[in-house]
DNA sequence: GGTATTCATCGAATTTTTCGATGGCAGGTA
DNA sequence: TACCTGCCATCGAAAAATTCGATGAATACC
């Protein structure tokens, strides 16, 4: 049977609770019954605590086990600790209605225009106390996640490394945006006529290359842009009443389509828009809620 | 090998410390080395914590184990708890110089006169911040100890019931106190001359009977007191220049012996003056100090 | 004085934890 | 690409800790 382990770090919460019950009942036997264990198990654990704290903790005085002063001190802290354990065990609850946290979303122009407005509105409706921050994902959105600068990343980012999870929101492709009066506005664009257009090229910089360009270059072609812009902002104004053509994600084109026309692109550069998050936020209730919300608002 | 125990109360402080070390080092293997245990033991304990908290706690992100938000919360409380454990383990230290506690001593007239002055002076010298309270022990000093009304009991109380400890301070006996001019002041008192004296009887009440009286009555005698007093206070004034004789503990007589004479009593009713304390104070540093102090000042 | 409780202790049984070895996975390197 | 290498999960066996039921000693209660 051997002596109980006198190493204090081997004390567990069951032992602290046992101390509490023995103190409450003033009896080892009664405590054993209450805890549904054998009386000798109570003796064993008390012996262990006695060895750890170098104090008898309980002494018999007229039929009752009475606690020493030291025991009272230890018990006071034990009660605190048992309370803290209960708090720790509390499942990670998240109540949108009362939450006041901040969420940070990393994304780029496309998502800011097409997803963020609906997302912000949904967050404000479901969680009025929360604040939203949007930061540029650029090409290194994954780093933002790792550095905890962002809670989620939305965009055309395939899940690559480990340490991340992702969920595909929807498929997207590139299409050609041009003035409704453009000569080729109502024809089907073949490769040659496409390549010969007066292109507006969106170059986000930072080494990012749009999928349709990769597809086009992989097929051995090249386009000579007439205008290069750093983002699609103001693109509609640029194209309207001109002979310029921009190749942009289809939904972005549709968003601009008041006086413009959208045509299929021979190099559609299909890609997935995904929601990406760091593994360390995977189990968090708030993050699960946020991801579900993003999924919902991204449904067509 | 079986699954780890998912009962939260089986979590011990070693597990919380392991959590701390893993968090600090970002690696199970490194934590195992630091803690001088096998890596699989670390995995085992982390698996247990994961099961208890229903959270992965650590996820691999780019070669490093990164903590989840939940893990951070749990860790924060764990650190607090580890701190509290350290406090609890602190041996029950007592520093007289800085102590500000109160000590309560239960005793009766005899000890208040013969021991308390020296004790109070010793306490004031060694522990200037402490306060002393003296309460009457009467006949039920043991109850005062059990009720925590007194820290120690000093007096002619044999250790009787369990739940108490005691230490014999010294032996005492009764002697006869009379005026130095009393006719029998210089003769040896035999039983008959003793019984025929004009006795002053101290009757403390409460059923307490002095040892010499028990001895005398056990021998089939009886005395007819001339004066009955409830305590020896003022006894000297009463006896001086009178033919009265009081039978009192010898040291009490000596304390009064300015103009009085002490004679051996044929019924010395020897008894021990003891220090008695409740078992629940046995291990307390303050109480040990107090008891040692009382022992010292009671040396002749 | 006898009887019933209560806690400590014993040996055996059980459970938990640790160990050493192995396998899968991801990262870094040739 | 393909191979190492380091890291964690898992396995079976071994060790350690805990629990059990029984018994003994001390004490409270008749």
List the keywords:
D-Maltodextrin-Binding Protein, domain 2, 300 residues, DNA-binding, five-stranded mixed β-sheet, Arc Repressor Mutant, subunit A, 22% strand, 39% helix, alpha/beta, homodimer
Give an account of the 3D structure.
- The structure is a homodimer of 300-residue chains.
- The first copy, chain A, is built from twelve helices and twelve strands.
- By secondary structure, chain A is of the alpha/beta class.
- The first copy, chain A, folds into three domains: 82 residues, Arc Repressor Mutant, subunit A, CATH 1.10.10; 96 residues, D-Maltodextrin-Binding Protein, domain 2 (3-Layer(aba) Sandwich); 96 residues, 3-Layer(aba) Sandwich (D-Maltodextrin-Binding Protein, domain 2), CATH 3.40.190.
- In chain A, the strands form three sheets. A five-stranded mixed sheet of chain A has the order 4-3-5-12-6. A five-stranded mixed sheet of chain A has the order 9-8-10-7-11. In chain A, strands 1-2 form a two-stranded antiparallel sheet.
- Chain A is rod-shaped and about 105 Å long.
- The interface between A and B is large, with 48 and 48 residues.
- Chain A binds a DNA duplex (30 and 30 nucleotides) through helix 3.
């Amino acid at each position: 049977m051997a002596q109980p382990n006198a190493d204090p770090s081997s004390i567990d919460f069951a032992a602290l609770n046992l101390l509490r019950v023995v103190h409450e009942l003033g009896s080892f036997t009664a405590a054993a019954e209450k805890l549904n264990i054998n009386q000798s198990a109570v003796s064993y654990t008390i012996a262990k605590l006695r060895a750890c704290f170098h104090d008898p903790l309980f002494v018999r005085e007229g039929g009752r086990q009475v606690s020493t002063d030291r025991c009272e001190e230890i018990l006071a802290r034990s009660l605190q600790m048992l309370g803290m354990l209960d708090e720790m065990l509390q499942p990670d609850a998240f109540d949108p209605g009362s939450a006041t946290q901040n969420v940070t979303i990393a994304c780029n122009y496309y998502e800011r225009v097409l997803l963020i407005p609906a997302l912000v509105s949904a967050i404000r409706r479901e969680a009025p106390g929360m604040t939203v921050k949007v930061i540029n994902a650029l090409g290194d959105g994954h780093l933002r996640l790792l550095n905890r600068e962002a809670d989620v990343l939305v965009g055309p980012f395939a899940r690559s490394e480990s340490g991340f999870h992702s969920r595909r929101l929807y498929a997207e492709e590139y299409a050609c945006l041009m003035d409704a009066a453009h000569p080729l506005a109502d024809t089907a664009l073949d490769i040659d006529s496409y390549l010969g257009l007066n292109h507006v090229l969106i170059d986000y910089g930072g080494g990012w290359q749009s999928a349709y360009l990769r597809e086009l270059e992989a097929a051995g072609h090249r386009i000579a842009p007439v205008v290069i812009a750093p983002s699609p902002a103001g693109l509609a104004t640029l194209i309207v009443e001109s002979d310029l053509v921009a190749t942009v994600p289809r939904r972005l084109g549709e968003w601009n389509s008041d006086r413009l026309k959208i045509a299929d692109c021979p190099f559609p550069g299909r890609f997935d828009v995904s929601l990406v998050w760091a593994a360390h936020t995977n189990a968090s209730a708030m993050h699960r809620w946020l991801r579900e919300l993003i999924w919902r608002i991204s449904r067509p």
